[in-house]
Structure formats: structure tokens, C-alpha cells
Design goal:
778 residues; mainly beta; Immunoglobulin-like; Trefoil (Acidic Fibroblast Growth Factor, subunit A); 5 domains
């Protein structure tokens, strides 16, 4: 189906010293229509067949002479008899056949097809998208270039259908006169000034008259064109004779434009440039060339996290980098990056000494704008802190552009910051909600919730020197493996800060001969390297003698480093032989002494030494101790009914945990045995709670905040914690949480309220009844 056009190219206007490009035309031709007669429900119909000798629609050639079609494209066709909306499919190599009433003298068409067009050609809807794609430079996806047509069916069954674009296009020529190396364009975002409010969106078009008349929706969101295949950036300005093959097209509505901002994303960063006072008129079917030299644009490198130190602020200026907290000392909450949910900002915990060191999940905001109307920009998300325009809600959101609700006034009341949105009169002050089920930064009325504080970036943290400390080995024997376990490296900075760091490198000394060797420790941060040294002593190993303290037996190495075999002593009364120690245990002790290390049956002394035998009697006793929910720590636990009689056996029936077949018996707060079918769960500590895991079942979780929500999960989904006086699952279900309960002392269930019988958690505890001595009495 050949659908060609005969609209002349219009004005070519330059901004940024844009080069003129010769205009081209879209060629028009007639359509051959066959006219067999058929009867359809008593109405005479005329079958119109449009031939399909066509090329590829998505290619726009260098002279802009053709917009052609490809398989899968659809147009919507009306007629003047009954305004029937006929969807027409194009398939390459086949004819498209449509049926219209015999009385038809005119037909109307538009592209792209839109199923909502049911009212006739006087109200055809076409749409210019805010998100456009382009496969290669110089190719315009026709879907983003809507067209409409009015065609006449003549007496000799011929029709003229001329498709007219209901849009124009900017043809961007991008180059960089200071280009260094290779660089490729990935996407372009265009943001017209606030005065340009009708440049995208759905448009209602009347194509029944002699002239195409349309009205636009007031849409002012930025338009982004994404390249499927990146455009290699050149370093020379295009000439007047340059073809269109290397351009990026941006489809926009007919309008006069001024103050257009272009954001060009490349593989090296983002360039921003504005047309300032230059204006241009874009007509339907215009292709206006725009030459943009990225060397004159503002460049922003891709965001890369770097830890920074922040100190409490009492004033703020444009250009400052800040974080927002709920306190000034100890453990505080810091506003984190916006997550696009719940209309507020979450928190991340931090420790304050004199400063706060930023972490990757904190929102480090750049202050821009002007005093009284500051913007708070997060370069990690490329979003501005934004108060919702909903006057009755405590919402705090983000936006990718600056509007009235992204402007703030920052003052100070004591050490607290008062951050007030200038676009709202209520629910407009950033505060912190410390409720256990909230823990958010959001917008509130004055005096509501908790105050916030602003910390701004301190003087740059520049590495000055490093120091060494800790307990680490400095004496070795010839042939030993070098080891620096226990070495602590502290980095010291020019701003007075210090931090424990991992060394970048530690030199490896030669251990093959006696010597005093200097070890060099290096640490590198932000391309600055500092070093520190310490000495180790390497000596030949001698042949040493071990004296056994109980019978004065002497065991001498046959050669240096050969080691000796320590004997095993027989039991004495209730005491079994435990091993050899450098420490003599003269009276019974419940504390086990440190035994010497035996490797492959031998002890290797490092000096002449006396070793003493150690004997042990008794053993550790395992008990299960009832533990208050608020005192839970990591370890192994069983879940017990509220009356202390039955234990969770790990089986689930319709989301209810079942109990053991036999009872458990507590004496006071502990039990020495548990039912054989008890389900033992390991509690591991995570942020603000614990996971509950059984090796045969998986992780215990709550699938809903209602009865019957208890289940096993193969991977960690969330965690349990002591919250509001009870045991709660931290995952939120439609604003509610699941609480673990002991039901009627016969099962374990989840509920959406914190009422009812709390279960008992009993922790596995080992009670040590062992005693040690070197010379026991029989």
C-alpha cells in the first residue's frame, strides 16, 4: 500500500548558528481502486482495494521523499456515508481490501491506528509520544510521526489519498569540536520552556474539511528520543550540503518554540544546553535542522559514589552538598534515595561522631537555584526532591524536572533545619516520622512529627598518612610463611578524620635466611598512596627441649624444627586426660586452659619449655531456656505454645503451624529435653530483626496479614522482629503486618493485629559443668 505525500518542506531556521539544509518534498500519487459490487445485509457496498507496491516504512531517505510502510502497520479508515471505522492491516506483497457503502464519495485515513477513533473523521485522535525511539541516525520511526488524509473516490473508481503529517521534526546535528577519543550518543531529551505547553500528547483532528484542523492537548513533559544503535559523535560542524543521514529526529507538534533545553546522553556522560532567547517556528511536515556543538554544553559525568564527610550545618548556600537527618549525635536516620513508593523518603541508619560519613544508599543532595527557592537534586537518581501538589496529603516525592513544588526555602531554628516548600501552604515542611511502622521523611504541617537537621559536606577528605597498630607477628624462623594477621592500618586525613582501612599492599619478605627485614605497608585512596613500615626478625630455629611437669621427663628435638611427640596420660579416677598446656592448673577450675597445638602428631616448641598435663571431668548440659521476645539474640530456638506445653513441629495445615505429638516439660524457665518431632529453627540476625530457618523446611515467613498466613519459603523473603511489644513479620501487606500468635495452645498462626496469646521462644543453651586440673586426686 503506497501512501505518499505532496507536502512541501517549510522553514529552515537555525539556532546555535544552525546550518541551512535544502528543503525536500513528499511525493503524491493516485491509488488504483477496484469496484466489484457485493450485497451485505441489504446495503450495497463497494470493495476498495489499495495496491501494496511499497518499500520499508521505517526508513526515511536522505531527501525526505518517502514515508513508506511495513508489515504489521495499521491505519484507521473512515467514509462519508456512515463514519464506519475500518481498521486496515498492511501485509507485504498482499492487497488491502476495505468495504464501504456504495454512496461513498470520500474516504478518510490516519496513521498510526488508534482503536479509540469511533466518532468519525471530524474527531480523529493522533498522538505524539513523549518517548520516541530511533533505530539508526537518519531514520524516523513513523509511529511517532502521525499523519491524516482526506481522499476522494471518483466516478471512475479512482481515489486520491494524500497523507499529511500532523507534526514536524527537529533534525539534530550533533558534534563536539573538542572531542577526545571515541564517544557515542545514546539518547536526547528535549524540554521546551514552560511557555511551550502544547508540543506532545493526543491531538483531536478534523480532516473532513478542505483544511486539516486540529486542537492540541496541553502536555509539557520532556520528550526523550532513544537510539537503538548509538551514534558515533564527530568533531566537525555539519556543512550546508550535509545529508540527513546522520541526524537524530525529534517529532513535535506545530508550534513556535523558544528556550528549548537539550540533554544529550552519551557513553561518557550528559551534556545540557539551552537555546536561550533563540526561537523557531515548527510547522506540520517541517524538518528544522539544529546544529549543536557539545563543546559549548554543560557536561555532567555519570554518577559515581564517593564516600564524603558531612558536618552539622547552620547555613546553606547554592552549590552545597547536603544530607538530611533526624538527629545530630549517636545513631541517626538519614534520608535515602527516593524509591518511587509510598510517597515519601525512607531512612538509612548512620553513626554520628563529629561528622557523618556518607554511604551509597544515602541521598546526597546538591543545592541549586536561588535563595528562597532552592532545589535539592540527587545526582544518583537524577531526581529533585518534590512536594506533591495534593494539598491534603503528607507526601514527599521526586521529579525529573523543576516545577513550583521542587523549590524550597531553608532556614534554621537552633540546630534544626526548617525546609519549607515554596509552592504549597500546608503539608509543606520536611519532617521525620519516627513511628515504628513509618520511619520516613515526608512533608507535614509546622510542628507535626520530628524536626530534621542538615549536614553539609565537610572539607575534602585527603589522605595524609597511615599508621600501624595491633598485635601481629614480628619474629619468625627461617622457612616460616610470612604472616601479618592482627595488623591494623589507620588512614589519617588532612581534615582531621581517621579511619581503619584494609592495606592496598603488604610487601613479602625473604624468609630463607636469618635477617632483620623491613616490611612495607601501602594504602591508596583517590590516587594518593601513603606507606608505613615495620621490621621483622628471622632466626634459625634451634633444637629445643620440652620438660613434662608431672614427672620431669625431658623430650629433646632430634634436630632443629623436628618437633617432639607428647605422650597421652591415663585417666585418674573420674578425670580423663585432656591435653598439655603451658599453664599449670593447681586447683579445680571450670575454665579450660589453653592447650598447645599438636600438628600431625607432633608439638613444635619455639623455646625450651615446661608443659603440664590437664585433666577434665564432667561435660556441658544442653537446656532450652524460655527467652523474652525483647531479649532474642541469634541462635537455635524452638517455638512453644503460650501455656508452655507443646512445640511447633514444622508442619503446616492451611497456613497454621502444628504442634508436637508429645509435651515439653519446663522446670522453672528451662527444659532439658524436647519432643522428638520438635522443629529447631536457627535465628540469624539481619537489619532490625531475625530470619528463622530450618535446614529441612526453609525460611519461616508470613504470606499475608491474616490467619492462615504461616508458611515456609525456600529463600529469605523478609524477617521477624520484636516490634510494639510482640513478634512481627516486617513485610507490609496492604498497610498491615502479620503477627505470630499461639492459637488456643494447639497451633501457631498469623494475625493482622497484635492482640492475643504470644508464643514462647526457647533458646538452646549449653550449661558448662566441666572442671579442669593438672594433678587430680583419685
Amino acid at each position: 500500500m503506497v501512501l505518499n505525500n505532496s507536502c512541501a518542506m517549510k522553514k529552515i531556521i537555525s539556532i546555535f548558528a544552525f546550518a541551512a539544509v535544502a528543503a525536500a518534498t513528499l511525493v503524491s500519487c493516485s491509488k488504483e481502486i477496484d469496484n466489484p459490487e457485493v450485497i451485505n445485509n441489504g446495503v450495497k457496498m463497494k470493495t476498495i482495494t489499495v495496491k501494496t507496491a511499497i518499500e520499508t516504512k521505517t526508513t526515511l531517505d536522505a531527501a525526505h521523499e518517502n514515508i513508506v510502510w511495513s508489515a504489521g502497520d495499521k491505519i484507521s479508515i473512515f467514509n462519508d456515508a456512515n463514519n464506519t471505522n475500518l481498521e486496515a492491516d498492511y501485509a507485504e506483497g498482499a492487497d488491502i481490501t476495505i468495504e464501504v457503502p456504495e454512496a461513498t464519495t470520500e474516504i478518510y485515513a490516519h496513521y498510526p491506528y488508534y482503536s479509540g477513533n469511533s466518532d468519525g473523521p471530524e474527531s480523529v485522535s493522533v498522538y505524539i509520544s513523549n518517548n520516541q525511539t530511533q533505530t539508526n541516525p537518519g531514520q524516523l520511526n513513523g509511529y511517532f510521526f502521525p499523519m491524516v488524509a482526506k481522499g476522494t473516490v471518483s466516478a471512475d473508481n479512482k481515489a486520491l489519498i494524500s497523507l499529511y503529517p500532523v507534526a514536524g521534526a527537529l533534525a539534530l546535528n550533533l558534534y563536539h569540536t573538542d572531542l577526545s577519543g571515541e564517544e557515542s550518543v545514546k539518547s536526547v531529551k528535549i524540554t521546551p520552556a514552560s511557555a511551550n505547553t502544547n508540543f506532545t500528547g493526543r491531538q483531536t483532528t478534523d480532516i473532513t474539511g478542505d483544511n486539516i484542523v486540529y486542537s492540541q492537548a496541553s502536555i509539557s513533559d520532556p520528550v526523550t528520543v532513544t537510539l537503538t544503535n548509538a551514534l558515533a559523535l564527530g568533531n566537525t560542524k555539519p556543512t550546508d550540503k550535509q545529508t540527513f543521514a546522520g541526524q537524530i529526529y525529534v517529532c513535535l507538534a506545530k508550534q513556535s518554540y523558544s528556550g528549548v533545553t537539550f540533554e544529550i546522553e552519551t557513553d561518557k556522560g550528559t551534556y545540557t544546553i539551552t537555546s536561550n532567547n533563540t526561537a523557531f517556528d515548527l510547522e506540520n511536515n517541517d524538518f528544522v535542522p539544529v546544529n549543536i556543538n557539545l563543546a559549548k554544553a554543560q557536561f555532567e559525568a555519570p554518577y559515581s559514589f564517593v564516600a564524603q564527610d558531612f558536618e552539622l550545618a547552620s547555613s546553606i548556600a547554592v552549590g552545597d552538598k547536603i544530607i538530611i537527618t533526624n538527629g545530630t549525635s549517636g545513631n541517626v536516620a538519614v534520608m535515602k534515595h527516593y524509591e518511587g513508593s509510598n510517597n515519601n523518603y525512607k531512612k538509612v541508619d548512620a553513626a554520628v561522631s563529629s561528622t557523618i560519613t556518607s554511604t551509597e544508599d544515602m541521598a546526597v543532595l546538591t543545592v541549586s537555584g536561588e535563595a528562597g527557592n532552592l532545589t535539592l537534586y540527587d545526582p544518583a537518581t537524577k531526581l529533585y526532591v518534590n512536594a506533591t501538589n495534593t494539598t491534603s496529603k503528607n507526601y514527599l516525592r521526586s521529579s525529573d524536572a523543576v516545577d513550583d513544588y521542587a523549590k524550597w526555602n531553608i532556614t534554621f531554628s537552633g540546630s534544626a533545619a526548617v525546609i519549607t516548600n515554596t509552592g504549597k501552604e500546608s503539608h509543606n515542611i520536611i519532617r521525620y516520622n519516627s513511628a515504628v511502622d513509618q520511619l520516613i521523611f515526608s512533608a507535614y504541617d509546622s510542628g507535626k512529627q520530628q524536626p530534621v537537621y542538615v549536614f553539609k559536606q565537610a572539607a575534602p577528605r585527603v589522605l595524609d598518612h597511615i599508621t600501624l597498630s595491633g598485635t601481629y607477628p614480628t619474629e619468625f624462623f627461617v622457612g616460616d610463611a610470612f604472616d601479618y594477621t592482627g595488623l591494623v592500618v589507620t588512614a589519617h586525613y588532612t581534615n582531621g578524620m581517621s579511619a581503619t582501612v584494609n592495606p592496598t599492599s603488604v610487601s613479602t619478605p625473604d624468609m630463607s635466611a636469618e635477617d632483620v627485614v623491613t616490611v612495607t605497608v601501602s594504602y591508596t585512596e583517590n590516587e594518593i598512596t601513603k606507606t608505613a613500615t615495620y621490621d621483622i626478625i628471622i632466626t634459625e630455629r634451634g633444637a629445643y627441649t620440652v620438660i613434662l611437669g608431672d614427672d620431669a621427663t625431658e623430650l629433646t628435638e632430634s634436630a632443629a624444627g623436628a618437633g617432639v611427640v607428647l605422650p597421652t596420660r591415663s585417666a585418674i579416677g573420674d578425670y580423663a586426660f585432656y591435653g598439655w598446656s603451658e599453664t599449670e592448673v593447681t586447683t579445680e577450675s571450670s575454665t579450660a586452659p589453653t592447650l598447645v597445638t599438636v600438628t600431625d602428631g607432633k608439638y613444635y616448641p619455639t623455646e625450651d619449655i615446661i608443659l603440664y598435663p590437664v585433666y577434665k571431668k564432667g561435660s556441658g548440659t544442653t537446656t532450652w531456656v524460655k527467652t523474652a521476645l525483647s531479649d532474642i539474640t541469634a541462635g537455635e530456638y524452638i517455638l512453644v505454645t503460650n501455656d508452655g506445653t507443646k512445640v511447633f513441629n514444622g508442619t503446616m495445615t492451611k497456613g497454621h503451624g502444628q504442634v508436637s505429638s508429645s509435651a515439653i516439660s519446663f522446670v522453672g524457665e528451662s527444659a532439658t529435653t524436647i519432643p522428638s518431632d520438635a522443629c529447631i529453627m536457627t535465628l540469624a540476625s539481619v537489619t532490625d530483626g531475625f530470619t528463622m530457618y530450618n535446614a529441612n523446611k526453609g525460611y519461616l515467613y508470613a504470606s499475608k496479614a491474616a490467619s492462615g498466613g504461616l508458611a515456609w519459603h525456600e529463600s529469605e523473603d523478609s524477617h521477624w522482629s520484636y516490634t510494639s511489644g510482640n513478634w512481627r513479620y516486617s513485610k507490609e501487606y496492604s498497610g498491615n503486618y502479620a503477627y505470630l500468635r499461639s492459637y488456643d495452645n494447639s497451633s501457631f498462626r498469623t494475625y493482622s493485629t497484635n492482640n492475643g496469646a504470644f508464643p514462647i521462644l526457647a533458646k538452646k543453651t549449653t550449661v558448662n559443668t566441666e572442671t579442669y586440673i593438672s594433678v587430680p586426686t583419685e
